[in-house]
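Re-run with default settings, no changes from the original entry. Doing this only to confirm the output is reproducible before filing.
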Amino acid sequence: PPYNRWSFQRVQQFTRTARVPRAEQPSDLEEASQDLSGITFKDTAGEQSSVGELLTRSYTDGFLVLHRGRVVAEQYFNGMNPSSLHLIMSCSKSITSTVAGIYIEKGTLDPSDRLTDYLPELNQTGMSGATLQQALDMQVGVKFSEDYDDLDADWRECEIATGWREPPPGYTGPLDQISYARTLTDHDAEHGSQFHYQSILTNMIGCCLERATGKPFGELLAEHIWGPIGAEQDLVSIIDTAGSFSFEGGFNVCLRDFARFGLLISQNGRYENQQLVPKSWIRACRYPGEDLIAAFAASEYAAAAPTGAYHNQWWVRDAARGVLMALGIHGQVLFVDPEKAFVAAKFSSQPEQANVATAIDQMLAFEAIAETLS
């Protein structure tokens, strides 16, 4: 900050990127606009707050709400417009896993397989022995620090390797994801023993998918999701020197396409009478097992979603009702409540990477909107 208010809308201008083409014909989004700004909720400070106040104080760049498939609110701030692309950070993870889920249901990928079955380069690393499912659930015991307050932590060099950040002068380290992953040779836990959020795992999931299918991820995404949902803008991703997408956090989309993806998930993988993602995969993401709920409850993230979990690269806000969230640092959110036919998409450029109070307030606001609309 404050430069992220500018840069999150212009990532393709100063990093190496690749594009997933938009649809030949954008899908229609019916509009039924309402003023949602006056809807109130009790925030984490115990104060009565309104949706309008939240949008202002949370550095909102774009905000869109779908209810029963119709756009009931669409607002842009900070110079954004409907055609602007915005960095969605770790919401990219949920898009990556959705494509992986298609190929898991096809049998091309097996979640019980080890990562090394697809990526033998990882044999001498801290990921050796971990399964694809453990990676999907962030339960791999590789030693990797994602402490955003520590500028010497592993995530900083990972950003260089994935193309996120320019190498500093004299840098001689890895410049692609697989080469970087091979440097992670230590463990700090037994695989499957705990939920520990590590973005490097999503990159390995994406690489496994490309190896198993023999196709680049961009082609898979265009074929199965981006084209069929009628995306109106290209998806742009940061790429490494090998051409692999930054699966964990490098995708850039327009707000309406972000919402279209949420609508796909809310409709159990169907979009305009096409079953694009297997219903069984969506249901598995929405309703995690007791073991995953317990692992989440024992983690540092439990306070943000006391009845939640993390499963298949989705945050589960409410495991009983199957409410899903894609979350990214600096305030990116896709909130999906299929039971209420509700989707909220929000772009932000908050100054802090992670502000727990603001993140929870956003969820509370979305729940208040969903309840009011219902």
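The longest helix spans residues 356-373. The radius of gyration is 19 Å.
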